[in-house]
Design a protein that fits this description.
About 15% of the residues lie in helices and about 25% in strands. It is of the alpha+beta class and about 475 residues long.
Length: about 475
């Protein structure tokens, strides 16, 4: 009887052990969540280059030099219109303008100067002092941070709209608050210092507050023709006219005042004039500077991987999926527009440009998704074709080639190809004469200096040393 009791105790104890286990010993091991394509790529890339990416490595896109602080990125530009007429723009000044620029004065091509101002302080005053035009014009200011932008990416503030000979729909009022109010000009808004029948408008000064590092200029939009003319002639359709700095300094009882002439039709004559004056904080005036002709835009070639790299072989042989020819795209940014040429598509996954399904690379070449184009695939026993490059343009405003979105379809969704500063990159910017690797030719096999460039960043033209 005691043996039976003992056996029962043993069985009970065994059952307790089995049932108290949190894991069924007979159940198969649970699969671990699949790593994302980005995680896998980052791991393989570091192994491929033999170390961590240099902290200042920007992969040819110039992103490191464009990094700014949050304070620099914050834009607090606003306009306040004075509630009273300002003596600095009164009769002595108007007489000076009359002397320098009499009514009916015609301009010649050589009179026009392309320029912008550098703010230097944190605000400046501007006012409209003359208008002689039958068109309905919009007048405003454009500005940008030269450290992170360009005239092509400038923001605008409209000051006056539908201004003609003595008539305007509205001026911008801000009355020392953040709420914009629009008010029709009163009958005494006109100013008739010049003789003749046409009315002249003068406005109370607009005080424009902006970052002291910003550049700014002025523009006029002719609502009749739809054309806009800027003080930076590089932005004008007709570079021979558009704006002129007609400087008036230390005369007429006014110190450090500049007269800006704006042309609204591309023909001879000054239709609109603005006065820019008033030193800001620190005793600094806006600093006008001539704008050099825009240099011819330099293009770059983007070479990219589609995140489809396999594990590196255990014997240390290069993973030849790192051939960086899954998409080869030439890009030239001109006045904010992107002119592109699709050179090659070595991927067998879908890759699209700018989020547009119609700009999927295989579709653009007119081939099936499994066909590799212009990577010599057919010479190496793979499914490939050699086809003409495909030129196209992108809509939008682009500061650099880094702004162009390139995506691959993986893991049931579109994933953007990346090139963050100091981290693994699946797209790289190189010169447009760069020779991309053929199919399954490792990038560092063709260009032995690439790992040194990626890890140490002590060599710039890593593509000059190459193996055929």
């Amino acid at each position: 009887m005691k043996k039976i009791v003992l056996l029962s105790s043993v069985i009970a104890a065994m059952l307790t052990v089995f049932t108290s286990c949190s894991k069924d010993p007979y159940s198969p091991p649970q699969p671990q969540p699949e790593k994302s394509a980005k995680e896998k790529y980052n791991e393989h890339f570091r192994t491929y280059i033999g170390g961590n990416v240099a902290s200042n490595q920007d992969w040819g896109f110039g992103l490191a030099s464009k990094a700014t602080t949050r304070a620099e990125e914050e834009d607090t530009t606003h306009v306040v219109m004075a509630q009273k007429w300002n003596a600095e723009f009164d009769l002595p000044f108007m007489s000076t303008v009359q002397e320098y620029f009499p009514e009916g004065k015609k301009s010649k091509v050589e009179d026009w100067t392309s320029f912008e101002f550098l703010e230097k302080a944190t605000f400046h005053n501007v006012r409209l002092i003359y208008t002689k035009t039958d068109a309905a014009d919009e007048i405003g200011i454009y500005y940008y941070n030269p450290e992170t932008g360009s005239p092509a990416t400038a923001k605008k503030i409209k000051l006056i709209d539908n201004v003609q000979n003595g008539v305007a729909d509205y001026y911008q009022y801000n009355w020392y608050t953040n709420i914009e109010n629009w008010k029709n000009p009163s009958p005494n808004s006109g100013y008739s210092i010049w003789t003749g029948g046409a009315k002249r408008i003068r406005t109370k000064p607009f005080t424009v507050y902006m970052n002291g590092k910003y550049r700014f200029g002025y523009y006029v939009t002719n609502h009749t023709t739809g054309k806009t003319y800027y003080t930076d002639q590089n932005l004008n359709e007709n570079g021979a006219s558009g704006a002129a700095l007609l400087g008036v300094e230390d005369v007429g009882g006014v110190t450090q005042t500049y007269v800006v002439a704006l042309d609204d039709d591309g023909k001879d004559g000054f239709e609109l004039m603005l006065a820019v004056a008033k030193m800001g904080r620190g005793g600094l005036y806006p600093d006008p500077g001539k704008m050099a002709p825009t240099p011819k835009p330099q293009g770059v070639r983007i070479i990219a991987e589609d995140l489809n790299v396999r594990d590196l072989n255990s014997d240390g042989i290069d993973d030849t999926d790192f051939d960086f020819n899954d998409i080869v795209l030439d890009v030239t940014i001109d006045n904010g527009k992107a002119k592109c040429v699709l050179q090659a598509a070595g991927a067998t996954l879908k890759i699209r440009i700018n989020g547009d399904d119609n700009l999927e690379v295989h579709k653009m070449f007119g081939v099936d998704q499994k066909v590799m184009v212009n990577t010599d695939a057919e010479k190496h026993g793979l499914n490939g074709k050699t086809l003409p490059a495909v030129p196209f343009e992108l809509n939008g405003t682009f500061r650099s080639a880094a702004d162009i979105k390139i995506e691959v379809f993986r893991q049931n969704g579109w994933i953007e190809l990346f090139a963050p500063v100091g981290q693994a990159a699946c797209k790289i910017a190189v010169p447009t004469d760069f020779e991309w690797p053929y199919e399954r030719q490792s990038l560092k096999q063709k260009y032995p200096d690439f790992p040194r460039y990626a890890v140490n960043n002590d060599i710039e033209k890593w593509w000059e040393n190459q193996n055929k």
